[in-house]
Protein: GntR family transcriptional regulator
Amino acid sequence: MGYSAKTDAAFEMLHRDILNGSHAPGQPLRIAALSGLYGVSATPLREALSRLEEKQLVVGSANRGWRVAPVSLPELEDLEIARLTVETSLLEDAIAHGDLDWESGIVAAHHRLTQVAPPAGNVDVAARQLWDETHDAFHIALHAAGRSSWLKRFFVRTAEQLRLHHQALLFHPRAINPHGPEKHTPETEALLSRAHSVSAHTELMQVVLDRDAPVAREKLRLHVEITLEVFRSIAGASVKEKKAKREEQVT
Structure:
């Protein structure tokens, strides 16, 4: 099925703003509001939303219209398992078959990552979108020498879904825990700092360049586990707050 230029434009704008966190997970996507925001009429917007529903970034219902796909811990755990399965396979194949150009590409992608400000606390949408793109490009460079084009396509699709969750972790904690605090706890901030640290990515790069597949696999697993720790920290924040308040009342 072919789409009009207006539908394509609406799709690109909505797709971009969902993945950069401008529209929070679970947020309603009302046609009238979107039309005013993007300057696009209702028909192309509906077609664009249908395409985004096919990509599982938007959910729709007959009575409630469309909204950004929600996030959850089980969904994130499933995505991270899929991501690890695909990326580990590609990474091991790349380590076995990568050449000097592949190594140079990794070093260049890592250098670009060191030049971009991490997204935690960054309210500038363009800046955090740049970090996301640069970060994904670094991981793609790591396994670029992997030979499976299908696995690479699966990785891109999985990374897209993960970005929706990552934006919730960073900028929309209430989408994860409606009863939790609006701002991150010190524990969550520390975990986010670990997840975005240049040193963690440098260590991963070095073991890949050393062609140490077992250690690279473990480093990648630990890298992924931090994201799950952040989600669990946010999801449990309201419980910790209530406990702290009870303890204050007792003392």
